[in-house]
Amino acid sequence: MAEEAGLDLVEVAAAADPPVCRIMDYGKFKYEQSKREKESRKGAKHSELREVRMRVKIDDHDIDFKARTARKLLADGDKVKVSVMFRAREITHPEVGRELLDRFYEKIRDVSSMERPPALEGRMLSIVVTPGAKRERPPASSSRAEESEQPAAPESSAAVGSV
What we know:
CATH topology of the largest domain: Translation Initiation Factor IF3
Radius of gyration: 30 Å
Oligomer: single chain
Distance between the termini: 98 Å
């Protein structure tokens, strides 16, 4: 039947009982499927991992400059790996590098969220930040506390008046 129509007999669901087959033009089906996959990949945003490097003995202005660079990369939608390179005996004081990373992260905290905390990789201490700050929602209990305070206010004023 499929050969008469010039089409192919394609097994669609082999696991089904009984197996399901369709009569279709298999070449056309594969072509349309690849077009759909390409279209779905086109809409997806591919984020790269970019790196900002600095040394332990960096000046404040240079930190600000590197922070502006990181902000631009984050605005483009890329992840940013912020690394502090240690040279010679600087590696004996990793806490200095950790403080530097903390100061750097404070400068970009409003536009990013930390994906990976500081980690030592050989002679480099690094963090990975992603675009978009974590949204801090006000706790739900605070709104309930405000509601409970309103009815309590008249009772407390009545108690004060009677004392």
